[in-house]
Specification:
The protein is mostly helical. It has helices at about 5-15, 20-25, 30-50, 60-65, 75, 95-105, 110, 120-130, 150-155, 165-175, and strands at about 135, 140, 145-150.
Length: about 180
């Protein structure tokens, strides 16, 4: 069984630390849109490569890479949304567990598919720049804009977007 529980626990803590910050989200709206597009591109590439197109962009990539990946349900339960929360755009329940299971794979994805980048890092960076997103029909709602989801095959063929901190900061300064 493949499970890096320490990595899964660190990811849960990282996800629980996400806070919707209206001011930060507004200040980072351009970079958050780029990060959303890069998240869609990367997850589309992975989905096509591992046969997980169904349910994309929230398909369980970790299970497709390694069907025996397992994470303690009690750990995943920590991500359950608090209905009384004032957090407008928390980490969506459809994607949080997939991110944690991916983290539990450790280095396995890089070993099997060295040509692909981490599918969830752009999304984690999006969260760090002001919070989560909401899934709307055909798009990801970022609060101050949206990004169309499109078809998995179309997203998978797009060129990579730079998401290093300097590029993202410069993008936000343009707006």
């Amino acid at each position: 069984m493949v499970t890096d529980m320490a990595a899964a626990e660190r990811m849960v803590e990282r996800l629980l630390a996400v806070e919707w910050d209206r001011d930060a989200a507004f200040a980072h709206q351009r970079s958050r849109a780029r990060l959303a597009r890069e998240f869609l591109r990367r997850t589309a590439q992975w989905a096509v490569a591992v046969g997980a197109e169904r349910g994309w962009p929230a398909s369980d990539l970790a299970a497709a890479v390694s069907p025996d990946v397992s994470v303690d349900p009690a750990l995943l339960a920590k991500l359950d949304l608090d209905e009384t929360s004032s957090n407008l755009f928390p980490v969506p329940s459809e994607i949080g567990p997939q991110i944690v299971r991916w983290a539990a794979l450790g280095d396995l994805p890089r070993q099997r598919f060295p040509q692909f980048l981490d599918p969830y890092e752009p999304l984690l960076e999006l969260f760090a720049r002001g919070g989560g997103y909401a899934r709307a029909p055909g798009e990801l709602d970022l609060g101050f804009g949206s990004v169309p989801i499109r078809k998995v095959a179309a997203r998978a063929t797009l060129a990579a977007l730079p998401i290093d901190a300097a590029s993202l900061d410069a993008l936000d300064q343009e707006g």
